[in-house]
Specification:
7-stranded mixed beta sheet; 4-stranded antiparallel beta sheet
């Protein structure tokens, strides 16, 4: 599975962005999908995850109520709608796919495929 993340950019605090993660090479309909982010000098951290069916999802406490993960299996794409952005949301955002969809997970070590990342910068 190849993943291509897009939609990042520069936005003012309080603004919104919508990230997309387009998959190719294989349908992601049976994969749990996740979004992670990595700020300079920090470890990659979990942001949100959605089950293969779209029926379950997890969010990091820091983004709960502001970010929404969704998927369109017909388009082989996963989205991350980010509202009320804060400067601390600044990071490179990565999408990832987990082929073992038995248990939705927040752990980056459980994800098998990764996109190249898209930069999100939130100015104060």
């Amino acid at each position: 599975v190849q993943l291509q993340a897009s939609g990042g950019g520069l936005v003012q605090a309080g603004g919104s962005l919508r990230l997309s993660c387009a998959a190719s090479g294989r349908t992601i309909g049976s994969y749990d999908m996740g979004w992670f982010r990595q700020a300079p000098g920090k470890e990659r951290e979990f942001v949100a995850a959605i089950s293969w069916s779209g029926g379950r999802y997890y969010y990091a406490d820091s983004v709960k109520g502001r970010f929404t993960i969704s998927r369109d299996n017909a388009k082989n794409t996963v989205y991350l709608q980010m509202n009320s952005l804060k400067p601390e949301d600044t990071a490179v955002y990565y999408c990832a796919a987990n082929g073992d969809s038995g248990s939705l997970t927040r752990s980056r070590y459980e994800y098998d495929y990764w996109g190249q990342g898209t930069q999100v910068t939130v100015s104060s």
